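WARN  no MSA supplied for this record, continuing single-sequence
INFO  ligand: nickel (II) ion
INFO  echoing inputs
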Amino acid sequence: MKQDKKKRVTRIAALCLLGVFLGTVSAWNQVTSDNGSASVMASMEPAAGSALAGADIGGPFTLTDHNGNAVTELDFAGQYKLIYFGFTFCPEICPTALQEIDVTMKILGVMGKNVTPVFVTTDPERDTPEVMRDYVELFNPRMVGLTGTPEQIMAMQETYRVYAAKTDNPDFSEYMMNHSSYIYLMGPNDEPLTLFSDEDTPQTMAVEIKRVLQQS
Ligand code: NI
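INFO  complex generated
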């Protein structure tokens, strides 16, 4: 029974990830065709990530930051954001991604002064503002941790098409989560710009972010 459930969860996870992937591909295709100049797009191919311009990703949110303050997307107005979704109990994937964001910020240096790294929890039950504060401090002094009610987090995940679900892994005493792992570069008006994946290194992400910053 447990095994069946696990298999089903794995299958659902795989399907969801496929959905995210297809969504990205179709967003990319739409961008290329909407632009009407595929050859120009090809010659300006980004150094890393997939272009998200014009994709239906992101949107208004109301959450709580790691200092316990209520925040919305308007609190980030005028700032670029590097947003990652995960959970603080994550043994490996999340710490790796957040460390890569920190290295990316270090490569950007002063150029990144208008880029805010943001970590949104997919596990609001355990990731209280206090837990988030202690956690984001480990990675980058400017990183903002966001949590909220389960409903607020679910709404945020939906607008970013993030997949996350609890798993009961017998190797751990606490529950773990399967979740999609992407870094979203959002623009100063909260518009989606680039989607980075595990394939992208801090070096290539920094090149792409610099390219975007120089265009604006
Ligand atoms: Ni994780």
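The two ends are 55 Å apart (CA to CA).
INFO  checksum written, moving to next record
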